[in-house]
């Protein structure tokens, strides 16, 4: 006589309950990973945008403004290469590989401590928009667990 094999209804229900419980515990962890990846991507794009701004100012011989605040970042220039007001750049530079402007919003649930508004002159030196002086100390932007540092004099952008 053959013995029938299989699972009872109780075993199936318990197995599904355990799987559902484990999935419920893992879901918040996976969503926090998504936030971490978004923030890291934003930081990498910000560093690349600042580097591009410096290169653009040197190659075009037009001052290039970089604005980083709680809403995100934007890289822009003036319609004329000899601006009289370094605080009012109006033309957002196009992304080098896409038709969109070179700007981005801060990811959801990310926080930015610090604010930076500066421009690169034709020599690639970061300067204060108010008085045109070279920035005297490093600009440090903290986004979540990451930092972006813009060095004075050279304008070198890096993350520790």
Mind telling me which CATH architecture this is? 3-Layer(bab) Sandwich
Which structural category fits the helices and strands?
alpha+beta
User: What pattern of helices and strands is seen along the backbone?
Assistant: HEEEEEEEEEE
DSSP strand (E) fraction? Answer: 15-25%
How many structural domains? 1
CATH superfamily: minor pseudopilin epsh domain
Radius of gyration: 25 Å
Fraction of residues in helix: 25-40%
Q: What is the CA–CA distance across the termini?
A: 72 Å
- Mean pLDDT across the residues is 84
Could you name the CATH topology?
minor pseudopilin epsh fold
Shape: elongated
Number of contiguous helices: 1
Query: In total, how many beta strands?
Result: 10
Q: Regions with pLDDT < 50 over 5+ consecutive residues?
A: none
Strand count, sense and barrel status of the largest sheet are: 6 strands, antiparallel
Assign the CATH class. Alpha Beta
Care to give the gist of this entry?
This protein has one helix and ten strands; from the N terminus they run H-E-E-E-E-E-E-E-E-E-E.
Keywords for this structure?
alpha+beta; 1 helix; minor pseudopilin epsh fold; 4-stranded antiparallel β-sheet
């Amino acid at each position: 006589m053959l013995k029938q094999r299989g699972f009872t209804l109780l075993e199936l229900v318990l197995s599904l309950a355990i799987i559902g419980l484990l999935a419920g515990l893992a879901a918040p962890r996976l969503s926090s990973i998504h936030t971490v990846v978004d923030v890291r991507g934003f930081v990498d794009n910000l560093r690349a945008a600042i580097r591009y701004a410096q290169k653009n100012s040197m190659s075009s011989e037009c001052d290039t403004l970089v604005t980083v605040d709680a809403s995100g970042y934007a890289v822009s220039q003036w319609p004329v290469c000899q601006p009289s007001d370094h605080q009012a750049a109006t033309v957002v530079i196009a992304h080098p590989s896409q038709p969109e402007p070179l700007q981005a919003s801060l990811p959801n649930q990310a926080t930015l401590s610090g604010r930076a508004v500066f421009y690169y002159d034709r020599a690639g030196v970061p300067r204060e928009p108010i008085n045109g002086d070279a920035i005297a100390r490093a600009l440090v932007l903290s986004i979540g667990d990451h930092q972006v540092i813009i060095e004075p004099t050279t304008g070198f952008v890096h993350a520790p």
